[in-house]
Write a structure and sequence with these properties.
382 residues, alpha+beta, five-stranded antiparallel beta sheet
Length: 382
Amino acid sequence: MRIKTLFIALIIMISTSCSKKNPLEIALDSESDLIKKVMQNYQNYEVQIMYSQIDRNKSGKVSFTDFEFNVDDSTYFYPASSVKFPVALIALEKLKELQEKGTNIDRKTSFTIKNDTLYTTIQEAITQIFAVSDNQAYNRLFEFLGQDYINKSLQSKNLNGRISHRLSTSHSKNLKTQPVFFKENIQDSIPLYQQPSIENSNLPKLALKKTQKGKGYIYNDTLIMRPKDFSENNYIPLRSFHEIMKRIQFPQIYPESLRFNINPNDYDFVLNTMSILPHQAGYTNKKYYDGYVKFFIYGDTKDKIAENIKIYNKVGYAYGYLTDCAYVKDSKNNIEFLLSATIHVNENGIYNDNNYEYDKIGIPFLAELGRKIYDLEKKRKQ
């Protein structure tokens, strides 16, 4: 009888323990090999995850239930192209600011950078950023803004992080921006608006944990056997990305001082553009399949994304780091949630050798994580 009583008590204890698991823990305890492989060694993979359930009351008011795993703002990870997300929003903020000062330009006005051979528009640059994560589009917006303006905007909204450089260019850390010229017609000799060079502040090194990475890196085709120093690189923590997504998707729950100050028509544009797929932006190359920059749920497949599912997101991948920050909405099943995550895949510890486990480990993990959360949401909504 005593053995039977102890057995029943054990079953109750196990059941109670399981019932206390939050949905993120349930997803990460999955038997899927795609998740197990990473979670067995999640510290080495530098995994950080944030997940927000979204509920609406009868009047439509939004509330969040937030869950997180291993999130630490003081531990460095390289955000790569994820930094294009806030920069795109801040470019629209600056556009509004100029318009309010009487400058007659909008997001469709052509502009060029000194010594650049291309004319583009803010609208085209932002579309390229979200559709295929174009580096040059980001760099052109960087010249328009300057790092001081970007960082001031982040700080004013109590968003931790800093931007210090351009991407994939030889002058990435030049503190001086190039002059920018906006024209009604590109043949015009006189611009509608001309922005001179901006001299930006020399930022201090990041005072964060783990800014020294790996055991070596390749520089000018030479292997340097010492850790790579990331202390002067861009940094936005996962919590800030998650907050930015909340604020752009649900501005009404924040005071005006913490919102992005964007014109209503530009706001509608950027919201629509965040969910754009490459073929919808005119990219027909087979390289740019639907999940090309949609890591959650679809990142490891070339299947079409279902029409009822919209993924508003921005990814980043470089130096073995993969990051995605997304708002997922399924109109058919009445599902919506926020999910942000980062993972580092660089087994040999060497940087710039293009030998990272993106397709083998990183993207499959993020895709499966997205699917597990989606499945839990589907059950939660029933």
